[in-house]
Amino acid sequence: MRLPDLSRYSLPREPVRLVRRAVRHVLGTQLGLLLGPALLLTLPFLLLRWRAPFRLLRRAEAWRLERFYRFHLATSPEKFLGGRRALLHGLLAGVLGYVMLDLLLLVSGIVLGSTIQAVISEPVVFDFSVWVLSRPALPILLIFGSSSLLATALYAEAAAWAQAALLRRWTPVVREDALETRISRLLITRRGVVLAIDDERRRIERDLHDGVQQNVVSLSVMLARARRSTDPERASALLDQAHAQSQSLIEEVRQVAWRVYPSALDEHGLATALSDVAASSPVPVQLDHRVSVELPSAVESAAYFVVREAVNNVVKHAGASQVSVRIETSGPPEGRRLTVAITDDGIGGADPEGGGLQGLARRVAALDGTVSVDSPLGGPTVITAELPSD
Question: I need a labelling partner for 274 at 20 to 30 A (CA). Which of 108, 132, 167, 378 fits?
């Protein structure tokens, strides 16, 4: 689902950041073809007690990992990259760099060759043992050139992942690229939280203005009429009506407060609060609650509002005859996730960009969760929210 725009924040645009990252990884992998074998060649000097060349190459390799891959190692290479480990690491860097060299030669040959053929208006000929293909140079340049560049970037990313996986066997590794992505997501979700709060304030204002305020004005007018009435029976009837309206007003205020935050959620837990939602829905709701562990209050609140908003959308727009709600947890204790799935048999075609579903996405994203919507025309509609629950 699309989250709010971040145009007001001065972060690098994602395509530009990805291109810079790809270029860094390509250069870093290619440099590994030099530093990896050079590191291996200095290992025999360790047998002669001459450690200076090995230490120099090890520092250069650490610089390559930090400069081009943006790896932040928990410990310095001097403490873990020595002997057999340096042999494995240098061998991997050399092999990855050699493959990158072949790939760059292939890309250069395709791009430069196709460009030259396009300039001289000659086709590109592929001569195989079995057949010969001749195609215009410009399509070859656009299709094979762009695809080979993409393959180079993907290989460079795979090379960075492989070297990080090997290093993690010896020391924790943090990738700065992952931190940048995480910061971007946090900025998006922070903006989403602000928008969700604004939407909630507007909804509360509408409830108070259109409902509670109108009833209070009506009650005030009724009391004023009773006070001005000279007929005791008429005044008594007006007072009875005012009393009945005041009871209705109390119930309406209670409903507004319940929509802001249900007290049952704190007093009796998520299952009871959701049972109240099911009981008050004009469409039958089947609740399947399979959570046996204690959840953080923020996660319970998000799950409750996801179910309530989804059920309200079904009542207003889906034309469904029934709704099923399933809530369960999965995963190990340290990475347990809560899954909330709401399914209805309505007409389908729910718009993920609509205000209600966008509000759900923002609320769940604030807790590092995700929302997905599957709603083909004709139904059924399935809204699934996943939240970390540890």
Answer: 378
Q: How far apart are CA 255 and CA 351, in angstroms?
A: 28
* Angstrom distance (rounded) from CA 367 to CA 382: 21
Are 367 and 299 in contact by the 8 Å Cβ rule? The answer is yes
Q: Find the domain containing 349 and state its range.
A: 264-388
Of 177, 29, 17, 169, the C-alpha closest to 104 is 29
**Among 243, 260, 277, residue at a domain's last position:** 260
Pick the closest to residue 159 from 103, 104, 226, 92 (CA basis): 92
> Which of these, 79, 74, 68, 86, lies nearest to 27 by C-alpha position?
68
Nearest CA among 256, 326, 260, 337 for reference residue 293: 337
Q: Are residues 245 and 282 in the same domain?
A: no
Into how many domains does the chain fold?
Answer: 3
Residues paired with residue 382 on neighbouring β-strands, in sequence order = 343, 374
Question: Based on the domain organization, do 40 and 140 belong to the same domain?
Answer: yes
Residue 318: other Cβ atoms inside 10 A? 23
Are 287 and 379 part of one and the same domain?
Answer: yes
The domain boundary, picked from 211, 231, 260, lies at 260
Q: Mean pLDDT per segment of 10 residues, for the chain of length 390 residues?
A: 39 68 90 90 84 88 88 79 84 93 88 86 83 84 85 91 89 70 56 58 66 73 77 78 74 62 70 82 85 79 82 81 86 78 84 69 75 82 82
Is-contact 330 388, C-beta < 8 A?
no
Identify whether residues 251 and 270 lie together within a single domain.
Answer: no
